[in-house]
Write a structure and sequence with these properties.
The complex is a heterodimer of chains A (667) and B (115).
Chain A (H helix, E strand, L loop, with lengths): L40 E3 L6 E6 H4 L17 E5 L7 E5 L2 E2 L3 E5 L2 E2 L5 H4 L9 E8 L13 E7 L8 E8 L3 E11 L4 E12 L15 E14 L3 E17 L13 E18 L6 E17 L2 E20 L1 E25 L2 E23 L3 E12 L3 E15 L2 E12 L3 H4 L10 E3 L6 E16 L2 E16 L1 E4 L7 E5 L4 E12 L5 E16 L2 E4 L6 E10 L5 E10 L23 E12 L2 E8 L34 E10 L3
Chain B lengths: L1 H18 L7 E7 L5 H11 L5 E7 L4 E7 L5 H11 L10 H6 L11
Antiparallel strand pairs in B: 1-3, 2-3
The chains are: A mainly beta (667), B alpha+beta (115).
Chain lengths: 667, 115
């Protein structure tokens, strides 16, 4: 690969300084990520934003199953369960729900609205080459929706993929999974890749004998086909992805499509999406125009007892970006226009003891917008600042400014600062799908306004030597506050859930400290601690957010033998106490203890690498910590007191899994 | 709980196995200067050598290009190890890279490929 030759002025007294020079490849089309491939997880020091890169090595640390498991050894992203009967997992950043984090596939935002509920399960871990986690609002280029963070997924590229990759996984709970991918170069310019994921959960488990399945049964099928064309002047990418999933749980007697008096939980997701990118290199060096397009059709059916959600979403997105520089590459600029179309039809039907109700949400959003971003790359300072202006057909003009700044204090110390605004249109049902698991009625304010947040952060990174190896210390503080937020208020009245606009304050303060070092060759220790203070006005008082632990920490130890044929991995996490909803217990009195306990989690994995084969065996929740009685009033699943939303720890105990990976490389 | 204990034992045993193997007097460690250029080269060399009989481990350090190999003297010799490196397409001390293997390497892995 060649690089565009560049000149950077260095004054006499800067001569002794550690220089950081960005070389631009002479055919740069996509957003280029400069990643050192050797390490499993790295903070991208060149980036002025706070970006952590997880390579496929890090992703291998947890063999199963989809994106949410990939964050097990990551301090920034937390994974929570939505409720006690579906076992669906959702991510959280800075103590705030995953809906405030924008998830993109190769810089295309892919998760909005309906797939916020179960979208993670349609992203198999083995398809992913690397993940970049940005803390803060990030860039303005991809939209206004990232409020606290951005997660970018890089899938395996058609021109650099294995000829064939097979992963077969199974666990003692009765889950089996197959992941396949492969690709080939068709010519100098054309390449293609295909991906397939099939999973089935057949285990009918009710370990705590409460009459409810501890985990949903069912099947998932996901496929992806992508194409890439690349020449010096022009490049293009095109992909089609589809998924189909059907899960059922609830009372053990409940079967698929059966409505005979059992409390059933049923989820069905059907989705097809196409996306593409076209890029043209202009005559001027390192200057290009890229066009990104994306379309999605999504259908979801979710049933929890006598409450049923039916929704359909059609989305279109097109974004044209000019990427160039002013004078010299020290001053880069990006500018572009964007158009988003999003059509949603949704109905929640509830036949509860308090009465029958239908909640409808029908809306069509059309949002044209424009943005500009300027990047200054100095010797010590790097600045990225951008603004975007969008016109929302329902909510008017939206102005989104964002700023990221990095200052290299010494060769080993970086300081970073970020500030930015985020905006999103909420969906009370999908954003709170776990609350379908209570039989309390939902009351929805007729005039729900969009959510608007501001996020500010500072961080320090210190790279040092310990035991003759590289060590890394980082500390950061992030503050987010909402001008408006969708509040699911259960404090005003424990016998109902009220969805309304924020009346008062809502904020999050998070301090995260991380330390990584190698006590000896081939041993890597990663430790992190996070303090979360997340509060919002609910029931007229400023209250801690439910299900957010105040303290959270983990230690991960990874050991690879010197011949690299054995990999050992051990992770111990601790979750602090969390506030729980006050509910009416089966005896008819309000719950008094509304704080969870501190609980530990321990997981381990051993991988044996043998030429084309990798064998792995591992365990999750090795201390077998589980909630005995997570569901309130299991005897009367259709009664008003039934509630499965107070799930603050796993219901399933220990899990042991094993599997094989098989690879044939493309020569 | 039984599961936990048996798994813990399994982990310990597995750790133990990979740490101690064979007698000391038969082993030797050599350092070889190679013509490796990049991380990909590291994978190629280590990937080949670590599966050869007699080699306990092979580790390439970048950017020094120095390959450390620990091996069993009665099974393989230092000369044979250099020959193996050459067969992958890289110089090993004074043993030149095998011409055919060198030609097959992608551009980034050839001498000067990262410049």
């Amino acid at each position: 690969m060649g690089y565009y030759s560049d000149t950077i002025p260095v004054s006499k007294n800067e001569k002794q300084l550690y220089l950081e020079v960005v070389l631009y490849p002479d055919h740069l089309l996509e957003e280029f990520v400069f990643v050192q491939k050797r390490e499993n997880s790295t903070i991208l020091r060149l980036d002025p934003r706070n970006v952590e890169n997880l390579s496929s090595g890090e992703l291998r640390k947890a063999a199963c199953c989809n994106l949410s498991e990939s964050f097990e050894t990551n301090a920034t992203v937390d994974v929570n369960m939505t409720d006690g009967i579906s076992g669906a997992k959702q991510i959280a950043m800075m103590g705030l729900s995953g809906v405030y984090t924008q998830i993109q596939m190769e810089n295309i935002p892919i998760i909005q609205n309906l797939n916020m509920a179960h979208g993670m399960s349609s992203i198999p871990g083995t398809w992913i080459e690397s993940i970049q986690i940005t803390k803060g609002t990030g860039t303005v280029v991809n939209g206004y929706e990232s409020m606290v963070g951005l997660i970018n997924l890089e899938y395996h590229k058609p021109d650099a993929i294995e000829k064939l990759f097979v992963n077969v996984y199974g666990n003692i709970r009765g889950r089996a999974e197959v992941n396949l991918h492969g690709g080939l170069k068709l010519s100098d310019k054309w390449s293609t890749a295909w991906f397939l994921h099939g999973a089935t959960m057949q285990g009918d488990i009710d370990r705590n004998n409460d009459g409810f399945r501890d985990i949903m049964m069912g099947d998932d099928l996901v496929f992806l086909n992508r194409w890439k064309y690349e020449s010096t002047r022009f490049s293009g990418q095109f992909s089609v992805k589809g998924n189909l999933s059907e899960k059922y749980g609830g009372q053990t007697g409940f079967q698929r499509g059966d409505n005979s008096g059992y409390y059933g939980v049923y989820n069905e997701n059907r989705n097809i999406e196409i996306s593409g990118k076209t890029g043209f290199n202009l005559k001027k060096p390192t200057t290009s125009i890229g066009i990104i397009y994306y379309a999605k059709y999504y259908d979801i059916i979710a049933q929890y007892g006598n409450r049923e959600l039916n929704a359909n979403q059609k989305r279109g997105y097109i974004n044209a970006v000019y990427d160039g520089f002013l004078g010299s590459t020290l001053h880069r600029i990006k500018g572009g226009v964007i158009l988003v179309y999003d059509d949603l039809t949704q109905q929640v039907k509830s036949d509860l003891p308090s009465g029958y109700s239908e909640l409808d949400l029908v809306r069509t959003e059309v949002v044209p917008g424009a943005f500009a971003e300027y990047t200054y790359t100095g010797l010590r300072s790097t600045l990225v600042t951008g603004v975007r202006q969008d016109y929302h057909n329902m909510f008017g003009w939206q102005f989104t400014p964002r700023l990221n700044y990095k200052y290299v204090l010494t060769e080993n110390i970086d300081l970073r600062g970020t500030a930015g605004r985020g905006f999103r249109v909420s969906n009370y049902a999908i954003d709170n799908i776990g609350l379908m698991a209570t039989n309390r009625p939902w009351l929805v304010d007729a005039n729900i306004q969009p959510e608007v947040s501001w996020n500010f952060g500072v961080s320090l990174l210190y790279e040092l030597k310990m035991f003759g190896e590289k060590a890394l210390f980082t500390v950061d503080y992030f503050h987010t506050f909402f001008e408006n937020q969708l509040i699911a208020d259960r404090d005003e009245d424990p016998t109902q859930v009220m969805f309304s606009n924020l009346q008062g304050q809502s904020f999050s303060n998070v301090i995260q400290v991380e330390f990584r070092f190698s006590p000896m060759k081939n041993v890597e220790v990663k430790s992190a601690y996070k303090y979360l203070d997340v509060r919002a006005t609910m029931g007229g008082e400023l209250m801690s957010l439910m299900m957010v632990p105040t303290h959270r920490g983990f230690v991960n130890i990874a050991y690879t033998t010197r011949d690299k044929r054995w990999e050992y991995d051990l992770t111990a996490s601790v979750f602090g106490t969390q506030r729980l909803a006050t509910v009416e217990l089966s005896q008819g009195v309000l719950s008094e203890n509304n704080r969870s306990e501190v609980f530990p989690m321990l997981s381990a994995q051993i991988t044996h690498v043998y030429k084309q084969f990798d064998f792995y065996i591992g365990g999750e929740n090795l201390l077998d910590f589980r909630l005995e009685d997570p569901i309130i009033d299991t005897q009367n699943p259709f009664g008003e007191r039934f509630d499965a939303t107070r799930v603050w720890a796993p219901i399933l105990g220990i899990n042991i899994y094993g599997g094989v990976r098989f690879t044939i490389k493309n020569k | 709980m039984k599961n936990v204990i048996s798994l813990a034992v399994l982990v310990l045993v597995a750790f133990g196995c990979s740490v101690s193997k064979g007698g000391k007097e038969n082993k030797e460690t050599i350092k070889i200067l190679t013509s490796a250029e990049c991380g990909d080269c590291k994978d190629r060399i280590e990937g080949k050598l670590n599966y050869e009989k007699g080699i306990i481990f092979a580790e390439l350090e970048m950017p020094s290009k120095i390959l450390t190999v620990k091996y069993k003297k009665d099974i393989i010799t230092a000369a044979q190890i250099r020959e193996l490196v050459s067969k992958v397409g890289y110089d090993a001390d004074d043993v030149k890279a095998d011409g055919e293997a060198l030609n097959k390497l992608p551009d980034c892995c050839k001498p000067g490929g990262m410049e």
